[in-house]
Design goal:
Strand content: under 5%
Largest sheet: none
Structural class: mainly alpha
Order of helices and strands: HHHHHHHHHHH
Number of helices: 11
Radius of gyration: 22 Å
Distance between the termini: 45 Å
Helix content: over 70%
Shape: globular
């Protein structure tokens, strides 16, 4: 009895039906790039950047909005709403600080934030199969990382302030609808900037739109479902791990966010290069051949290095059909 017969039947079906073949190709490329490990790296650095960033935000708002408690509360609540896993567990009073705390927070936020942007640059270059010889060097990565940190940080701050101020002037009926719509639109701009700035290569907007929409919708869903995650996962874990359940929950939530970002980026690459259908069994498809060749070229580290792979006749892989560019 062939236990793999249903899987083989599905493989034949998804090769003929794009609605099945495309998402499967995205998942397979995600696996080829080991993007799960890259998402974990982004989550690791993101974890250490959250609290310094919140400290900076709360301290600056305390200076700027002194005497206007309503706006202060609205903006801070908007910021905490971006982290539903921990939003209700943070004591804002404990985060308030003076100028010394502001300086310390800025230094810590920049250090940790650079870790996030450098890890994200590496992830995007892996997703787009950029050879190592074409990637930015040590100084270039951190220089671009600082630009990305300042650009995306300012944009995210603008989103937080705008949503907070608008929501503060609305009643209960208009709060959720208006806040969600505005956040979704601004998140689309944020993800466009992320995909555009984090990749070494120049990627036009027409090649990014699908991933931008997927990332924005996925991020909105993650924020919405964060409360459910707390109630069903973190709450149960608290009886065993105590306070560390919140840490585990936050890391898991950030990891999911990193996965959403990278799955969206993989969808861009698969669509642009027509990397579907991918085969689950032999024979390999044209998209399999193109994907494996691009993955091999990632190992090129010097101008004189050229990595190629060959396929035996037994593999039966076609030699045409998928686009053979990496742009």
């Amino acid at each position: 009895m062939d236990l793999l017969r249903p899987v083989r039947a599905f493989d034949r079906l998804q090769r003929r039906v794009p609605a099945l073949g495309f998402p499967l190709a995205v998942v397979k490329k995600f696996s080829d790039d080991q993007a799960g490990h890259l998402a974990a790296l982004i989550a690791y650095y993101g974890f250490f950047s959250i609290f310094p960033l919140l400290l900076v935000l709360v301290t600056v708002l305390g200076f700027v909005l002194e005497g206007n408690q309503g706006w202060y509360d609205a903006i801070v609540d908007s910021a905490l709403a971006q982290f539903p896993v921990i939003g209700e567990d943070i004591s804002i009073g404990a985060l308030r600080g003076d100028r010394a705390a502001l300086v310390i927070g800025i230094v810590a936020a920049v250090w940790a934030g650079l870790g996030v942007t450098v890890a994200a640059q590496r992830a995007m270059d892996e997703v787009w199969d950029v050879p190592h010889r074409e990637r930015r060097n040590f100084i270039g990565r951190r220089g671009r990382g600082l630009v990305v940190l300042l650009s995306l940080g300012s944009l995210n701050l603008a989103i937080t302030v705008a949503v907070g101020l608008i929501v503060s002037g609305l009643g209960d009926v208009g709060v959720k609808a208006s806040g969600f719509a505005l956040t979704l639109v601004l998140d689309i701009v944020l993800f466009w900037a992320s995909f555009r700035l984090l990749t070494t290569r120049e990627i036009p907007l027409r090649d990014l739109w699908l991933g931008i929409v997927l990332a924005a919708v996925g991020w909105a869903a993650l924020q919405t479902l964060g409360g459910v995650y707390v109630d069903r996962v973190v709450a149960r874990a608290s009886s065993t791990y105590g306070f560390f359940a919140i840490v585990i929950g936050l890391l898991s939530w950030l990891y999911l966010g990193g996965q959403i970002l990278l799955y969206a980026a993989e969808a861009n690459v698969v669509r642009v290069r027509r990397l579907w259908p991918r085969g689950l069994f032999d024979p390999s498809t044209a998209a399999d051949v193109q994907a494996m060749r691009a993955l091999a070229r990632v190992a090129e580290r010097t101008e004189g290095a050229h990595v190629e792979i060959t396929f035996s006749p037994k593999d039966g892989a076609p030699r045409s059909g998928a686009r053979d560019d990496q742009g």
